[in-house]
Amino acid sequence: MTPVPIRYGPRPCSLVVCRGCCCGDARKNPGQDHDGQLTRLKAAAAASGGRLVVRTSDCLGPCAQANVLVVQPSTEGRRRGGRAAWLGWSADQDCLDEVLAWTAAGGPGVAPAPATLELQMIDPPKP
User: Fold this and answer.
1) How far is the C-alpha of 50 from the C-alpha of 87, rounded, in Å?
2) Residues 6+ positions from 36 with CB-CB distance below 8 Å
3) pLDDT per residue over 66-118, tens digit each?
4) Yes or no: is domain 13-23+34-122 CATH 2.40.128?
């Protein structure tokens, strides 16, 4: 019997928001509205008509650069060569404005990253 390949539809651009031991922790980053950040991102995803998905992760690894956020390309973005963009120090509203504008424009592989976000890009942890 020949296995039938599973076909998935196109995947939207997605944001993975770290909410582990350091990111999202008021003890490490006091004065930041961590819950408000996540609420804002989820509201943008809900309003995107399925072009953006937001997920949380327990710990993405680069704790020294908390809050960490990963912008993953859509299916079309991957097809065009886009790769996941890891962002550190992503808790402020200006950063969120840039991330949401970039994902609305298509995200990695579809639209160039804003120069301000390029300054916040970090290397993913090594396996």
Assistant:
1) 23
2) none
3) 889 999 999 999 999 999 999 999 888 999 999 999 999 999 999 999 999 99
4) no
C-alpha distances in angstroms, 105 versus 13, 57, 87, 90, 101?
Answer: 10, 24, 18, 19, 6
Cα angle, residue 65 at apex, residues 25 and 24 outer, rounded to 5°: 15
What whole-number distance in Å separates Cα of residue 26 and Cα of residue 101? 26
Question: What pLDDT is recorded for position 64?
Answer: 84
Confidence tier at 34 by pLDDT (50, 70, 90): confident
Nearest to 16, CA basis, from 52, 64, 46: 52
- Lateral strand order in the sheet of 85-87: 52-57, 13-18, 69-72, 85-87, 121-122
Query: Model-level pTM?
Result: 0.87
Which residues partner with 56 through β-bridges? Answer: 17
CB-CB contact of 70 with 86 (8 Å) = yes
